[in-house]
Specification:
Strand content: under 5%
Low-confidence stretches: none
Number of strands: 0
Largest sheet: none
Order of helices and strands: HHHHHH
Helix content: 40-55%
Length: about 140
């Protein structure tokens, strides 16, 4: 009779993961990150934040932008599903830099800054189309 190694498929694991290494060069998510973090002017979002040194620190607009633009590209538009992906999907977790925004935070951002998001989205589309990343 064959003798096989026993497995622990129900066992939890503690893994060391470098979030920045999860974004593979040449992919949409990698290009999206490079564009939003380094190339695009996101100052159009600053006027909507008036918390200076008082109040709770806000999540940077660049992080929420990366999350929503990536999830939208996958066809995920439900804000609750997007918030859940920030906890469970390694690519989204990497884009979010391990921040897990509540779905209401994402909702306020999307509804309050739709014009600004549209401008940035257009710029991202042009660059990604030029790189052949849009299907």
């Amino acid at each position: 009779m064959a003798h096989y190694k026993e497995t622990e498929k129900g066992q939890g694991l503690f893994l060391t993961i470098n979030l920045s290494e999860q974004l593979v060069p040449g992919t949409y998510e990698y290009t999206l990150t490079r564009l939003i973090d380094n190339k695009l002017n996101l100052s159009i979002f600053d006027r909507n934040y008036n918390n200076d040194c008082t109040g709770v620190a806000a999540i940077e607009p660049r992080i929420i932008l990366k999350i929503i633009l990536y999830c939208y590209s996958l066809g995920v538009v439900s804000l609750k599903k997007i918030a859940k992906m920030c906890k469970e999907n390694m690519i989204v977790k990497s884009l979010a830099e391990d921040i897990e925004p509540h779905y209401t935070t994402i909702s306020y951002f999307v509804s309050g800054m739709s014009d600004e998001i549209e401008k940035i989205f257009g710029q991202v589309l042009l660059v990604c189309d030029g790189k052949g990343l849009i299907k």
